[in-house]
Structures are given as structure tokens and as C-alpha cells.
Amino acid sequence: MKVLIIEDERRTADFLHKGLSESGFVVDLAATGPEGVHQARESRYDLILLDVMLPDLDGWQVMQTIRQHTEAPVIFLTARDDVRDRLRGFELGADDYLVKPFAFAELLARIRRCLKRAVGREAERLEVDGLDIDVLGRRVMRDGVRLDLTAREFALLHLLARRHGEVLSRSEIASQVWDVNFDTDTNVVDVAIRRLRAKIDEPFEHRLIYTVRGLGYVLDAARGRDA
Fold first, then answer.
1. Per-residue model confidence as pLDDT tens digits over 157-174
2. SS3 of 101, please?
3. What contacts 111, CB < 8 A, 6 or more positions away?
4. Domains and CATH numbers, the chain
5. Per-residue pLDDT tens for 195-220?
6. Which superkingdom, per the lineage (predicted)?
7. CA 2, CA 63: separation in Å to the nearest integer?
8. How far is it, in rounded angstroms, from Cα 174 to Cα 156?
9. What is the mean pLDDT of residues 136-152?
């Protein structure tokens, strides 16, 4: 799970980064409102922690802007505990509102609750041209044949199927599946795609996964039907 923290107070940001990283999350930091908006637009996050009192753009303005680009759950973190502030946060589309100071255990519980709700809103099953992905059960079938995938292969296939028809760059795939930024010379994504194709494509009549030269990879059923 990938979390964006938009917080200008360095000690708080470092505390949250350390705690969430140790809890298994991949964490990005933004210290200003504009920086937070930029990162929310450029990357996909599973959840955003947003301070209200930010330089340049305050949390209210950031919230209004990022809701145009992402449906990721947002939790406001702020010392402002007035009921009117809480209501304003929820009216702008926040999923939760936590007043500082707070116990990290409580924040973690609220994060998990928000993520559980978000997963519930996602499709539990993805179907693409005979490919059937049971997201919650982590099972994959194609044309009635059960396919045995590793955890990494499942994550890669889920990403490609969830964004069916969209060309994904190697760097974006690396960020979403491996949670790291690989050098352009690293071929780990290409190797993983090759192994996934051996299971998803090679035993069947039509391919689903295609290379788009100079751009990346796409899972596209229409290409297979037109071939």
C-alpha cells in the first residue's frame, strides 16, 4: 500500500514516515500544498494523510484540487478541532479527520478502516476476454484453466488488468509492483512480463499482453481479437 503524507512540520512528517514504513507501507512526503497536489496527480496512492495548515495552499484548497484527480481515501491531520472544521473537511470529501496530538495506534487503525472501505469499493473480480481474476481470493483463470501465479506475478497482472487498454511505462510498473524506482538499464520488469506471458498468453490462442515500443506494456483484449 502506498501512502502520501502532506505535512509541513518536519518532526511530524518524519514520525509518520517512520511509523508507517515500519508498518509495511510505502510512503512519500510532501512539505507544501502545491508539492502535495503535484504528487497526488503524478502518482497513484492508496491513501493520503493531509495537514490543514500548509504553506502556499492550505489543506482545504489541496483537498478540493486533488479530489479532481484521485478517489484515494484522505485523512485530515490537524490541531483544529472545531466542529465546523470537521464538517468542512467531510464536506470537501475527506474520509476521516484526526485531531493532533494523536496516538499512532489510533491513526493506524483509522488508516486500515479507510483502506478496507476503499477495497470494498473496488471490483472484487476482473474479467478480460476469458481472463478471470478473483481479486480477493487471488485466483486467476483463463478460458476455464486455473493459472498458478506467484504473488509478484499476480500483482503485475492485477495492475495491467485494472488499467486494461492503458499503456504503462516500465518505471510506473516498477513503482506499483515493486515499490521502488528502478534504473532504466534494469530489466527486472521485462523479465517479469516475459514470465507472466508464458503463463497468461503462450498456452492460449490470443495474446493479451503487448509491448508498445519505447513506451511500455499494455493488457489489451482488442489487439488480440484484431490479430
1. 998 998 888 899 888 888
2. coil
3. 3, 20, 47, 75
4. 2-121 (3.40.50.2300), 125-226 (1.10.10.10)
5. 999 999 999 988 999 999 989 999 99
6. Bacteria
7. 18
8. 9
9. 88
